[in-house]
Amino acid sequence: FQQFSDTGSRKEHVKITSEPKPGFLERLSETSGGMLMGLVTFLLAFYLLFTNEGRALRTAKSLEEGLSLVVPLDSIHSISQQNEGRLVHLSGALSTSKPLFDPSYGISIQAVKLKRNVEMYQWVEYEDSKEYEENGEIKKETKYSYNTEWKSEVVNSRNFDREIGHKNPSAMAVESFTAVSPNVQVGSFVLSKGLVDKIDDFKKLSLSHLEDPHADVTRGGDYFYHGDNPRRPEVGDLRVFFFYAGLSGDDPHLGSADKVTVIARQRGDQLIPYHAKSGDVLEILYPGDLSVEEVFQKEHASNTMKTWALRAAGWLSMFVGISLMTRIFYTLVDWFPIVRDLVNVGLKAFALCVASSLSLLTISAGWLFYRPLWALLLALLSIVPIVVARSRVPPKKQQ
To answer: Mind telling me which residue stretches traverse the membrane in this protein (predicted)?
Structure first.
């Protein structure tokens, strides 16, 4: 059953749908499906937490190994055979063999990467829903609103609740792309593909010094517009703009070439990945002129941030998994409002305590083969949430 009403505006309307309130067996069936999903999430949390600790310690050991072996180069313009196969550190300006260009718009730049972004003016649908119970039925009121915006992906208007008056083109006449220089060097050394991939500090390219490339294209600010009037775009109009990364030559408009710092293995005039004995691959690139110590400090900081982010994700997955698996107890008592609310609070507290304890225990297991004392300390710490939870349970009254 659907009750439909329109606000009178072409850009906004409201739809109301209703369905019978689900019975006990139906809710129990949905809860059973949630329990299965919770079990999968719960098991994935163990895997994520356990492997993350091993990864973090392996990366830390590999960085320590790299710091003890790295050789700073005296010159980036001469290749020493003494450093063949060794981990080396060098800093210098980027250089490429030839400029990157986009002949369709008259763009030419001496850089490592050139990115063309294309956006189309399109209709976008937004939903705002709320549910409520009325006359024994669950009703859902959805407000649909439409707005025209610049989007880099084609918005499929066939999925709109109301496509009439909000139809978008099915494709863009101009495509986005990223061009990458086939040969990137620092001094006499050629960077590997992995190092080139790390050059991703994109900056918007100013088009102020360029002319309109075609009669049907108009330049406005840092955009090329495909349309009749850039100030009043219509659905289907395009705008094109550019980004670059790794300026590799002196440019009168953009300045001097970008400098980078690289730590990698030397093989002839190539800079390639270095496989540390601890298990990680060292292939490091940072913008700017950095010392060996500064590079490894940044790497250690990045490893620490990644470790804590994955720990938080693992704990959250375990909490969600336990909550879904214990949801059935809430379903069994959801006919009784007071009991239902108490059970809900109790289940959340239970999931919080168990997720915290099991997360600490799993992390300690990941450290067992690397740092046994820390593993033992974390294992003891995992008992704290359970002890705190038990201490808050009131003792039984004496009869």
So the answer is: 32-50, 308-330, 373-393
